[in-house]
């Protein structure tokens, strides 16, 4: 569906991943390993292999070399996520088949193939980490569970090594695969109580853990920081417990086995709590970044404005959760009930135990970030797929005879039951009519609508990036908010101060402070940094034309909507710059800040929509109405001059204007002469 609007990469990160993959294909692994990218995070640059999801780049480059003949790397990377996502449907079938049988596996493949959270982060153009991370993660878990059920030790060993290597490749492709590590850590703690094959566990689980940790060392990220950090501990600790527990059960007498096991379990829990408490102080273990800690404790989001400002890191609301999973949650609940009723009296105790652990942790972790809803989706799919076939078999089991010798006819109720299940499973695809799983994904690639709220194609960003590439010096440095960094570097081919990697929070904070400082102070700081141009993006909506002068409201997803985050990240009180609605700028914002002067609009009146009254100053309940007003005209002698404005800004008839404006620093400007 995104390709119907234009055959482009989607979102922001795919542009860097495309650029890195292209570099790897054209220059080889050795050059990639040593690549210090001087076009990003000027002037320090970026060590690409140490700060990237290299597993994605390696895999895409290898597959392009094998299958990309006659196709450009750009086109290949556009197709890549959809192909990998389709292959993952096969893996989810295999995984759930191991847990609940073939019927469950087939149902899981159907549900996975239409799940909104899965598709929205794996559609055509989404050359980001999630599709490949899920592919490797599910493959690794499938191989592990399949090995546990295998009857042949050699086959099991091969699967265990392959599973460890696959999950390591997933961790090198997407940090979100730490979720699978968390699930497996808890599963290893529970496995001795669910599976009685103790001698198999003694060598199998350590082999899997060793293969994972050994393979992850080949990746700079996460690499040694994972092995020597909380991630490695969450696998090594449970593996040690599993081995110790099974040794105690094997070599202790029946009389002492229970007591010794209980002491071991209690000691493990106490030791784990002490180790984790000490580890988070950073004393001897690598502490995860704030983003990973936030996924464990969702309440941390509000203490970090930068993390909080990223839309995909927003905490999931109840309404979003219901939209993402809809009535499928009902079937997941039924699956939990059925599994709990069968654990302890079934040969699949370990598999059912895994399904419960995955389900509970998947739903919990997804509450931290909207981005992690993929795990809640997979959890619900697994639980539903395991529960529904068991429920159907119960309904369709051979009818019993009554005490009068008559057979109860249940044909019609059975068909009604099946029809009801089908209807409930299909509902999210069709209901509500204008906001279901299909049409909610009907968005153009981000570069064609500027990541705004509009489901339309605008020429502004492609035209702007083309202008940058063709009309600025090759060594030009462009300052902008970090959201647009990857586009400017990859498509515009120019150096930026910050980009979507957000690896240098101090640099982002400095940019925020520059935008909120006075034009003269901002000019001085940008000169010191080495910037040549400043780019701003502002979205305006045409509301009326008064005396041939078009009037606008400002909102829609540009810098005018993000400015409150600039203030929070800069450590500035928003009410210094904004009125109580945290959207309308005060006179101080418009007159005294660089950002207010870069926005090519001026307030002409404040309008109350309810009583249709106008005011000269801001009154609660009013919205500001703006007219176009470029403060730094081309050729002026001030600190900045406008050198480019995108097409829809220049139009006075466009109902929505996605104005991308580029200002050049006047190198000859002397602030002292203005005093």
Secondary-structure map with pairings?
Blueprint: H1 13-33, E1 36-37, E2 46-47, H2 48-51, H3 54-67, H4 73-100, H5 102-114, H6 116-120, H7 129-149, H8 153-173, H9 178-194, H10 198-216, H11 224-227, H12 230-251, H13 254-279, H14 290-296, H15 305-309, H16 318-325, H17 328-342, H18 349-365, H19 373-396, H20 411-430, H21 446-449, H22 460-471, E3 477-479, H23 485-490, E4 495-496, H24 505-516, H25 519-529, E5 533-546, E6 549-554, H26 559-570, H27 587-592, H28 594-598, E7 601-608, E8 613-615, E9 623-628, E10 640-645, H29 647-650, E11 656-665
Helix pairs in contact: 1-3, 3-8, 4-5, 4-7, 5-19, 7-8, 8-10, 9-12, 9-18, 10-12, 12-13, 17-18, 17-19, 18-19, 24-25, 24-26
Question: Can you characterise this structure?
Answer:
The protein is of the alpha+beta class and 675 residues long. The chain folds into 4 domains: 1-127, no CATH class; 134-287, no CATH class; 307-400 and 407-436, no CATH class; 447-674, no CATH class. Helices cover 57% and strands 9% of the residues. The protein is built from 29 helices and 11 strands. The strands form 2 sheets. Strands 3, 4, 5, 6, 7, 8, 9, 10 and 11 form a 9-stranded mixed sheet that branches. A two-stranded antiparallel sheet has the order 1-2. Helix 23 links the parallel strand 3 and strand 4 (495-496). The longest helix has 28 residues, at 73-100. It is globular. The chain starts with 12 loop residues before the first helix and ends in a 10-residue tail after the last strand.
Give the key terms.
nine-stranded mixed beta sheet, 29 helices, 9% strand, 4 domains, 675 residues, alpha+beta
């Amino acid at each position: 569906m995104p390709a119907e609007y234009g055959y482009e990469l989607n979102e922001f990160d795919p542009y860097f991943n495309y650029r890195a993959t292209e570099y790897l294909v054209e220059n080889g692994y050795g050059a990639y390993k040593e690549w210090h990218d001087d076009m990003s995070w000027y002037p320090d640059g970026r060590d690409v292999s140490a700060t990237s999801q290299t597993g994605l780049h390696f895999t895409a480059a290898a597959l392009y070399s094998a299958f990309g003949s006659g196709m450009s790397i750009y086109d290949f990377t556009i197709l890549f996520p959809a192909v990998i996502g389709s292959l993952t449907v096969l893996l989810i079938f295999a995984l759930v088949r191991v847990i609940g049988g073939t019927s469950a596996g087939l149902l899981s493949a159907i549900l996975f193939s239409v799940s909104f959270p899965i598709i929205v982060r794996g559609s055509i153009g989404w050359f980001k980490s999630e599709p490949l991370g899920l592919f490797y993660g599910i493959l690794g878990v499938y191989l592990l569970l399949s090995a546990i059920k295998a009857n042949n030790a050699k086959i099991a060993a091969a699967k265990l090594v392959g599973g460890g290597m696959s999950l390591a490749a997933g961790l090198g492709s997407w940090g979100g695969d730490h979720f699978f590590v968390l699930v497996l850590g808890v599963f290893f703690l529970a496995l001795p109580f669910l599976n009685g094959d103790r001698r198999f566990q003694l060598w199998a689980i350590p082999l899997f853990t060793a293969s994972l940790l050994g393979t992850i060392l080949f990746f700079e990220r996460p690499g040694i920081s994972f092995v020597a950090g909380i991630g490695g501990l969450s696998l090594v600790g449970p593996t040690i417990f599993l081995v110790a527990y099974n040794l105690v059960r094997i070599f202790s007498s029946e009389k002492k086995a229970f007591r010794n096991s209980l002491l071991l379990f209690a000691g493990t829990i106490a030791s784990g709590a002490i180790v984790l408490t000490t580890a988070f102080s950073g004393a001897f273990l690598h502490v995860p970044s704030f983003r990973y800690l936030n996924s464990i404790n969702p309440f941390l989001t509000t203490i970090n404005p930068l993390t909080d400002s990223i839309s995909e890191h927003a905490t999931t609301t109840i309404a979003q959760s219901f939209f993402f999973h809809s009535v499928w949650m009902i079937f997941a609940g039924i699956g939990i009930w059925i599994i709990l009723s069968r654990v302890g009296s079934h040969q699949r105790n370990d598999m059912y135990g895994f399904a419960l652990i995955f389900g509970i942790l998947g739903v919990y972790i997804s509450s931290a970030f909207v981005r992690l809803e993929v795990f809640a989706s997979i959890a619900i799919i697994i639980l539903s797929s395991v529960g529904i076939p068991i429920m159907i078999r119960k309904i369709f089991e051979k009818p019993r005879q009554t005490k009068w010798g008559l057979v109860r006819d249940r044909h019609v109720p059975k068909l009604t039951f099946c029809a009801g299940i089908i209807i409930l499973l299909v509902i999210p695809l069709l209901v509500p009519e204008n906001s279901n799983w299909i049409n909610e994904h009907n968005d153009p690639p981000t570069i064609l609508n500027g990541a705004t709220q509009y489901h339309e194609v605008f020429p502004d960003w492609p035209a702007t990036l083309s202008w940058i590439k063709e009309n600025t010096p090759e060594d030009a440095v462009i300052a902008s908010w970090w959201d647009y960094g990857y586009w400017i570097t990859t498509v515009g081919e120019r150096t930026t101060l910050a980009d979507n990697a957000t690896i240098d929070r101090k640099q982002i904070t400095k940019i925020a402070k520059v935008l909120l400082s006075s034009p003269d102070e901002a000019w001085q700081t940008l000169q010191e940094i080495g910037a040549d141009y400043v780019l701003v993006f502002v979205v305006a909506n045409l509301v009326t034309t008064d005396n041939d002068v078009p009037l606008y409201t400002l909102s829609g997803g540009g810098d005018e909507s993000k400015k409150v985050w600039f203030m929070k990240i800069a450590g500035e009180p928003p009410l210094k710059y904004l009125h109580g609605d945290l959207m309308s700028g005060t006179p101080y914002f418009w007159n005294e800040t660089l950002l207010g002067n870069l926005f090519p609009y001026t307030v002409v009146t404040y309008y109350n929509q309810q009583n249709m009254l106008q005011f000269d100053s801001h009154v609660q309940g009013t919205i500001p109405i703006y007219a176009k007003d470029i403060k730094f005209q081309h050729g002026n002698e001030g600190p900045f001059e406008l050198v480019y404005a995108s097409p829809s800004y220049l139009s006075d008839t466009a109902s929505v204007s996605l104005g991308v404006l580029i200002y050049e620093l006047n190198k000859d400007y002397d602030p002292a002469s203005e005093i």
